[in-house]
Amino acid sequence: MSEAEQGGADEVELHEGAAAPELDDSKSAPEDRAEAGPFDASEVPAMRPYVDLGGIKVAPREGLQLRLEVDERANRVVAVSLEYAESLLQVQAFAAPKTTGLWHGVRRELSQQMGAQGAEVAEEEGPFGPELVVRSAAPAEQGGGTRVVRFVAVDGPRWMLRGVIMGKAAVDAAARDAVTELFRELVVVRGEQPMPPSELLPLKVPAGVQAQRPGPQGGAQPA
Question: Any idea what the Cα angle at residue 174 is, between residues 168 and 180, rounded to 5°?
């Protein structure tokens, strides 16, 4: 390649880099979020029974199995996993600015990250707004085939609640409706302490709840 051609290539690369799309920091949430959930702690009656996990409260229901994912290196709970309707919903809550949202930016980062790992990534419109559907090859020791995972999220008042849907609900609409209802019932406790955006809201282990290390999906890592 001549020096002139090399220079032209560099100019094109610089031009493409400068034309990166502008980040959308608007909030992403269903219009009825305050009435139908997921809820802020200020929006639910104090006497309603919940399993209190600190930054997230879970409404108990028949058939729901709950466990906590623990990062042993940091010795802290990093996610809540809910097994229901032959599916797994793993949730995390993050601090966010008061007037802007995180999900549009996080979704773009997830899409780039998963695509770089060789997964097929598609964006769909779901009950909470835009969501990511990620298809990747399952390891042979886990039966092979294709693994499907859905990422959903809602920007609330000063928080973002993110869910990773695995199992039957990732591919079956009826099972996904049941998991959607489960996600809607969650309550986020943001608290009044100042926190930087994207900081994971602290979670705690209540009595009688199993805690374990995060699974291979990687959904338990903070955004």
Answer: 85
pLDDT tens, per residue, the chain with 223 residues: 444 444 444 444 444 444 445 677 899 999 999 999 999 999 998 778 899 999 999 999 999 999 999 998 888 999 999 999 999 999 999 999 999 999 999 999 999 999 999 999 999 999 999 999 999 988 878 777 899 999 999 999 999 999 999 999 999 999 999 999 999 999 999 999 999 999 999 999 886 666 665 544 444 333 3
CA–CA separation, 54 vs 155, rounded Å? 18
**Closest by Cα among 176, 182, 152, 161 to 58:** 182
**Backbone torsions φ then ψ of 74, nearest 5 degrees:** -90, -10
What is the Cα–Cα distance from 182 to 83, expressed in whole angstroms? 10
Per-domain boundaries in the chain = 25-212
Largest CA distance in the chain: 75
CATH architecture of 25-212: 3-Layer(aba) Sandwich (3.40)
Instruction: Look up residue 32 and give its two tokens.
Output: 């009825």
pTM of the model: 0.83
Sheet of 56-58, strands arranged across: 39-40, 187-188, 56-58, 51-52
3-state secondary structure of 156: strand
Strand bridging mode 39-40 / 146-156: unpaired
